[in-house]
Design brief:
The protein has nine helices and twelve strands. The protein is of the alpha+beta class.
């Protein structure tokens, strides 16, 4: 094989130049200590295809690669191609031991995938339905569903009676009535949190619940959503719209009044709450009234015929 190769080089100087260019790869590798890497699947076959294509392009002469493609030199050609594969891949990942740094001259940077984020317009609390149990008590069933991109989570729920309990988690934990503690929720199944109230509430009363959801995205990043839900306590109320805004102008008091006044359920992202609530007119529809209260920084999204979600844009 060696003798045949030397004779071929004497007859074809261009083939000798191709061989010398290839041999320089070893000179480069001799300057570094190369980390072993696994050659990608199909790499050798790809090299062989390129050798065959090169041979087809230049049928008028037999170069170094063409020489290796001759049938009697096929086994040697396969060995050389394996060396080429290792040499090329090794050159990319060669480590410069002298400098103590990775040689990145030939490395093409691959951007890291962007972390998965949860669409802020997707409410985990989907709405609430009411039913009477065997004792005649009213049950409010809150339906929770994880949005796209969220893998799993835990849910804490509290029945609240003041703005302080809504805004401050420590006050909420100390003073509010606990409804659910660390209940699990996954993409595979919805979660229903029920609140039972046997008392006969006065017309216009609302049930106010805060949900604290801590979860994980599908790429294992933490995510959370804290929402306050205001819903009519008595489903048989027949309250007419037109009540005046609360005199204190507080944001969550305004939402509670709207839930009672228009007999709808309002789900509000606590983190997007403005400092105060704006007034609305008695002639406004529910969406217009909500838009006035939440301000320009928030959006109102209908979740159903009588449920609205407020979130930060």
């Amino acid at each position: 094989m060696k003798l045949a190769l030397e004779q071929h080089f004497e007859a074809d100087p261009e083939a000798k130049q191709e061989y010398d260019d290839f041999a320089r790869v070893y000179d480069l590798l001799a300057l570094t200590q190369v980390e072993e890497v696994e050659v990608p699947h199909g790499f050798r076959a790809g090299i062989m295809d390129r050798v065959a294509a090169e041979s087809t392009k230049r049928p008028e002469r037999v170069g170094f690669w063409d020489f290796l493609r001759r049938p009697r030199q096929l086994q040697a050609a396969i060995g050389v191609c394996a060396v080429v594969a290792v040499a090329v891949v090794s050159t990319v990942v060669a480590v410069d031991r002298h400098q103590g740094q990775v040689n990145t001259e030939n490395i093409v940077p691959v951007p890291a995938p962007a972390p998965i984020t949860i669409d802020p317009s997707q409410s985990i609390v989907q709405g609430v339905s009411t039913r009477l149990d065997q004792t005649g008590a009213i049950n409010h069933d809150f339906l929770l569903r994880l949005p796209k991109g969220m893998l799993s989570g835990t849910v804490d729920a509290y029945e609240v009676t003041s703005t302080q309990q809504i805004r401050d988690a420590e006050i909420r934990e100390a003073q509010a009535k606990s409804i659910a503690t660390a209940q699990s929720i996954t993409r595979a199944a919805d979660l229903t949190v029920s609140v039972v109230d046997s008392r006969r509430a006065a017309p216009g009363s609302t049930l106010n619940v805060v949900f604290d959801i801590q979860g994980t995205t599908t790429d294992q990043h933490p995510v959370s959503q804290d929402v306050a839900v205001f819903t009519p306590l008595n489903p048989n109320d027949s309250v007419s719209a037109g009540s005046a805004p609360p005199m204190n102008g507080k944001y969550f008091d305004s939402l509670q009044t709207l839930a009672s006044d228009y007999h709808v359920t309002i789900v509000a992202d606590i983190d997007g709450a403005p400092d105060g609530g704006q007034a609305w007119s008695s002639t406004d529809g529910i969406e217009t009234a909500l838009a006035r209260v939440v301000g320009a920084g928030n959006a109102v999204k209908p979740l159903g015929s009588d449920t609205y979600f407020i979130y930060r844009k």
